[in-house]
User: Which sequence fits this backbone?
């Protein structure tokens, strides 16, 4: 297990216990099995983006917050490129970089690279407590937001609506890079 995976395991467990949640309670809220939560917290399984999205949503956190806390909490107003936590989904190759400094700002910037043909889905509760916009930096993104489908090209920007199940899909033969700008609205 690498350092980030070990730290992610400890961070997830700490976030759960800080909220006075049992593994059973987190399993009920997130729809992730108790056994899988236990494996993740013990560092025996590397969670996918989908699992982390479900768990972070159930904890009232963003996925970025969870990864950033695992990397190292900070209070600097500058986060150098080399210090930005980078996480890769073991199932899809989806890469997520937490760009924002480790401050208490409600604004978070996240850079994502979605490989050709890859798809990542999140439940509606992964979008609770936040307002988000997607800005396509390079490539194409087919974004499913509930029953709506948005085909986005380089330069396009989309503001997400009310929380709904989503799927990020790269229909192109090249990597799709996009920036997620999110503001946490309440905890």
Assistant:
């Amino acid at each position: 297990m690498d350092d980030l995976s070990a730290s992610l395991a400890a961070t997830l467990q700490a976030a759960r216990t800080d909220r006075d949640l049992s593994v059973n309670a987190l399993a009920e809220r997130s729809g992730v099995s108790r056994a899988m939560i236990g494996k993740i917290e013990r560092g025996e399984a590397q969670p996918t983006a989908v699992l982390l999205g479900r768990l972070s949503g159930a904890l009232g956190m963003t996925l970025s917050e969870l990864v950033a806390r695992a990397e190292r909490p900070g209070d600097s107003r500058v986060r150098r490129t080399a210090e930005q936590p980078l996480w890769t989904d073991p199932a899809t190759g989806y890469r997520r970089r937490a760009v924002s400094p480790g401050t208490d700002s409600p604004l978070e910037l996240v850079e994502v690279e979605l490989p050709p043909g890859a798809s990542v889905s999140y439940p509606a509760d992964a979008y609770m407590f936040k307002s988000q916009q997607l800005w396509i930096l390079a490539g194409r993104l087919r974004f499913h937001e509930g029953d709506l489908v948005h085909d986005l090209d380089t330069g396009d920007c989309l503001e997400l609506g009310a929380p709904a199940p989503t799927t990020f899909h790269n229909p192109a033969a090249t990597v799709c890079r996009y920036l997620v700008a999110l503001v946490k609205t309440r905890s």
